[in-house]
Design brief:
The strands form 6 sheets. This protein has a 22-stranded antiparallel barrel. A 3-stranded antiparallel beta sheet has the order 2-1-5, with no helix packed on it. By secondary structure, it is mainly β. A hairpin with a 2-residue loop joins strand 14 and strand 15. The protein is globular and about 85 Å long. The relative contact order is 0.13. The protein contains 4 helices and 33 strands.
Length: about 650
């Protein structure tokens, strides 16, 4: 009955969407499945993300991916190999070093980067008719479901002004005990683009709540033939909860000076006048307010924690982080200059940061920080032969004085036989002051005071893409001095020597008739595994049969697998939400396999998947995502997504 209720709910959403959209034409499909001439849509939807500082738009595809929709989740999109507890919405760290992100200067925000909505995650739209999307996923069995719901709506009031909103809801009950998750995030966004004035604005929120079970209390119980329910297995923590909440306001607006350029239409010799911007004055403001809490009781923690600094009965720790940025920028556009085709930009930015650390009702830290940055950019984004972007910034006042960041990237594309080859090279050299929370932190179970040196980080990246062949080759190199990490005691430490990381990755999408074999492989080497442990090889492979039925329904049936070599992967500390070193538990050398059927019918995508079907059948017993945290047992999953217009 419970499953049938879910099906009826999904069917009801589909019915409502279908009645709303009426007889309008479908969305353009993604580049993976080009639209047929007979299916060209009468409507137009454009979508883009923006650069946070200057508000420069970068065109991106509307979410209409045809193949492998079952893998289109925040965790799967983040990296092909991750450390997490297996329940959607829980803290996460990529096992691929160059996939790791840092969306915020707030140390406690990073474990949620795969899910959080920040400025770079907002898609702005321009559409001739209102556009919406509904997505719903669930995993069975009953009482252990993992529900994931997404809704997006966008509409234009006129050809200049667009507004919209989105919401993501995750509710994971967990296949194992005491690992429930609840995540709600989203926000409102709007954009205006006229001849001289334009803005992009958004208000975003993130709200995460996850029970912390500390991992399995007795690993041997996982292999018992007498298991009635994995939910009943004992866990190390039974009454511990972490919450992370953030609110973000962002506004970027600019006013441009320029001139009208005459353009003749060859069809009828008529004349149009295009506005050509010469100089733009830009103002950007961003405010971030975030808070993390961790609570547990002594009865629930037992001997899990070594220290109880303030209470032996209960823990109630919290940190708050607030960041206000104001940026003024001036740009000289590259479009106006026919002789020297490049753009110039300069900026000055003021940053105010406020941090607090408290336990129960006692406030231990109330810190304010001010920083002033200055910098500029030289870029060429127009044209197909060669494009480049060189930028730099330096902190000229404040706690971070002397911090600098120099970046450069160069890209080109050209034809080779019948294929299009694109090549890109980028470099990044920066000096960064240590994160405040790695130097000072006080809580019931952990406290530290450090005086770390600045981190000096140089990175080089290169990529070669063969568009038609479906092959992409990548190379990454990093040399980091004074690398900061969390040691075996789960406290911050600094490696004062040079740490090198080198990685090669390959994406190869092969095809023979209607059989496809998509692969992503990563090989990485670290010079000091005791400081930065990484798996040598990580692989995602997807073998499937794809066909069309009566030219309308696209069917994809296949099996996928994630695998990485064994290594002493990082463990997870619930009290701080950080991943730390350990050398007692090896994870990896285990295939996590799925079988699925994925369908695409015009505006509807839906799938059925039996995840981790090889559990207990083959592959061994080392089915762990990280120490003491096993992969979920075999589960049945279903989901659908609907794009529609009003």
């Amino acid at each position: 009955m419970h499953f049938m209720k879910k099906i009826f709910f999904a069917a009801f959403l589909v019915f409502i969407c279908g009645n709303i959209q009426g007889q309008n034409s479908p969305l353009p499909q993604s580049s993976q499945e080009p639209p047929r001439k007979s299916d060209k849509p009468a409507v137009d939807v454009r979508s883009w993300t923006i650069d946070e500082r200057y508000g420069v738009a970068d065109t991106c595809a509307v979410d209409t991916v045809v193949i492998s929709f079952q893998d289109n989740t925040p965790v799967d999109n983040y990296s092909i190999a991750n450390s997490w507890n297996g329940n959607l919405g829980s803290p996460l760290q990529s096992k691929i070093f160059f996939d790791r992100t840092e969306k915020s200067y707030n140390l406690f925000a990073t474990p949620y980067d795969a899910y959080t909505v920040n400025v770079e995650d907002i898609k702005f739209f321009n559409t001739k008719t209102p556009y919406a999307n509904l997505t719903y996923r669930t995993a069975l069995p009953r009482f252990e479901e993992e529900d994931y719901f997404k809704a997006l709506y966008s509409m234009n009031f006129n050809k200049y002004l667009n507004v919209g909103g989105l919401v993501n809801l995750i509710y994971g009950r967990g296949q194992y005990g005491n690992q429930n998750t609840r995540a709600v995030n989203g926000g409102f966004f709007g954009s205006y683009s006229a001849k001289r004035y334009a803005f992009n604005a958004s208000m975003m929120f993130n709200d995460f709540r996850n029970y912390e079970n500390g991992g399995m209390n007795n690993i041997a119980d996982l292999y018992s033939n007498e298991i009635y329910s994995y939910k009943l297995l004992a866990t190390k923590l039974t009454n511990a909860i972490s919450t992370y909440k953030s609110g973000i306001f962002y506004l970027n607006h600019k006013y441009s000076l320029g001139f009208e350029r005459e353009r003749k239409l060859p069809q009828n010799d008529s004349v149009l006048y295009d506005f050509v911007p010469v100089t733009s004055f830009i103002h950007t403001v961003k405010f971030e307010n975030a808070k993390r809490k961790y609570t547990d009781t002594f009865a629930g923690t037992g001997s899990f924690y070594t220290d109880n600094y303030y209470s032996a009965d209960r823990t109630k720790d919290s940190t708050q982080y607030q960041n206000l940025k104001n940026t003024l920028a001036l740009t000289l556009e590259e479009k106006f200059n026919t002789l020297l085709k490049f753009g110039l930009a300069a900026f000055v930015e003021y940053e105010l940061i406020h941090r607090t650390i408290a336990s129960d009702s006692t406030r231990f830290v109330n810190n304010y920080e001010n920083n002033i940055y200055a910098g500029g950019t030289l870029s060429k984004n127009e044209g197909k032969v060669i494009r480049y972007n060189f930028s730099g910034q330096i902190a000229i006042a404040g706690r971070r004085i002397g911090d600098f960041d120099l970046k450069g990237n160069l890209s080109t594309s050209f034809r080779v036989l019948k294929d299009t080859v694109s090549v890109s090279v980028s470099a990044d050299f920066n000096t960064v002051s240590p994160n405040f929370f790695t130097e000072k932190y006080y809580s019931n179970h952990f406290q530290w005071e450090n005086n770390f040196d600045k981190t000096i980080d140089f990175r080089l990246k290169a990529r070669l893409n063969l568009q038609k062949t479906g092959i992409s080759l990548g190379f990454n190199l990093a040399n980091i001095k004074n690398f900061i990490y969390f040691g075996k005691d789960a406290k911050p430490a600094q490696y004062d020597k040079n740490l090198q990381v080198m990685a090669f990755d390959v994406t190869a999408n092969l095809r023979l008739w209607k059989f496809h074999w998509d692969n992503k492989l990563a090989y990485q080497v670290t010079s000091e595994k005791k400081v930065l442990p990484l798996p040598d090889f990580s692989v995602y492979t997807n073998l499937y049969f794809k066909t069309s039925i009566v030219k309308v329904l696209i069917v994809q049936i296949g099996t996928s697998c994630r695998y990485h070599t064994a290594y002493y992967g990082n463990s997870y500390m619930p009290a701080t939400g950080q991943f730390y070193l350990q050398d007692a538990f090896s994870v990896g050398n285990y295939p996590d396999m799925n079988v699925y059927a994925n369908f695409h019918l015009k505006r509807i995508r839906f799938y059925f998947q039996y995840a981790h079907f090889n559990h207990g059948l083959f592959g061994g017993e080392n089915f762990f995502l990280m120490p003491d945290y096993p992969i979920n047992p075999a589960t049945f999953q279903v989901g659908f997504s609907w794009n529609f217009y009003n």
